[in-house]
Specification:
Layout: H1 2-18, E1 26-27, E2 33-36, E3 41-49, E4 52-61, E5 65-72, E6 78-83, H2 84-87, H3 89-95, E7 99-101, E8 113-119, E9 123-130, H4 133-144, H5 159-165, H6 168-180, H7 188-200
Antiparallel strand pairs: 1-2, 2-9, 3-4, 3-7, 4-5, 5-6, 8-9
Amino acid sequence: MYIKKNIFVLILIFLPYSLYAWGDGDKMNDGSCKFDLETGYKDSLLYINNNESFLIMNGGDSKYGTISTIYNALTCKKVTSGELYKSNFSGLLEKKGFQEIDPRITVDSSFQNMITFSKNKDNIKVNIKHIAPDVSRELNNLLEALSDKSASSKINISDSAKKLLLNEIFYYKFLDKIRSLSAENINYNYALTLNAMLNNS
């Protein structure tokens, strides 16, 4: 009887921690990471900076408080965890230059990573594939040339880059670049040609 009481007491003591003892995610055959939605799951945030990416999963409840767990979104490994409001993992990542990724987009704003993010009632899957550096440079150069008056309106684009022109993030970046330039700094012939290519892609 004494032993049973002790076991019951131990269960009560460690139950709050067991709710948040989130381990590593699972590496899938396609290279994606699968993270189970543990008891108390609230939300998640994905951050990317060049060739690094982290997923923050927040959990908790009113009885035991809240906790954040941070995972490497490429290796699926748990990095650390801490109290949600004390750890401020999001703030730390942003200070280090990481960009929060909207789960609806499929390419980051620097054109360095393709992103697939999906969530159901049981788990989150994140798949991040690096874009070849030459393709990333090509896409960025296409936007930079909008303010280059010497840029030819005969635009040549590789097949690899053409596939990414279909992505809405590139069009948004195109519009942002146009809006950021003064009228006298825009290469209009180039801009009109590139805009036509984007609308006909």
